[in-house]
């Protein structure tokens, strides 16, 4: 595990930001895919709104 942290520490700020953005995108896509699987006929607008609601819910509960 220490080797992984050491490698991470050697990355530039830009590389770290890009990794975080990729991870965030992946999490959002997983959330959207789950919502779509639960609501097969959902419109794109409704999907976006539900993803936003899920992210806001998670953010509110993370602070506790």
Describe this structure in words.
83% of the residues lie in helices and 0% in strands. The protein has 64 residues and is mainly alpha-helical. The protein has a domain at 25-64. Helix 2 packs across helix 3 (44-62). It starts with a helix and ends with a helix.
Mean pLDDT: 91
Run of helices and strands = HHH
**N/C terminus separation:** 29 Å
Q: Taking Cα atoms only, what radius of gyration do you get, to the nearest Å?
A: 16 Å
Unreliable spans: none
Strand-pairing-aware structural class: mainly alpha
Count of alpha/pi helices: 3
Largest sheet: none
Global shape: elongated
Q: State the assembly state of the protein chains.
A: single chain
The strand count comes to: 0
Q: Approximately how much helix is present in the residues?
A: over 70%
Please indicate the percent range of residues in DSSP E strands (runs of 2 or more). under 5%
């Amino acid at each position: 595990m220490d080797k992984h942290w050491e490698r991470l520490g050697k990355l530039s700020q830009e590389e770290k930001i890009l990794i975080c953005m990729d991870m965030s995108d992946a999490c959002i896509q997983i959330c959207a895919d789950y919502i779509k699987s639960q609501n097969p006929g959902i419109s794109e607008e409704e999907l976006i709104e539900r993803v936003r609601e899920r992210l806001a819910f998670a953010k509110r509960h993370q602070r506790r």
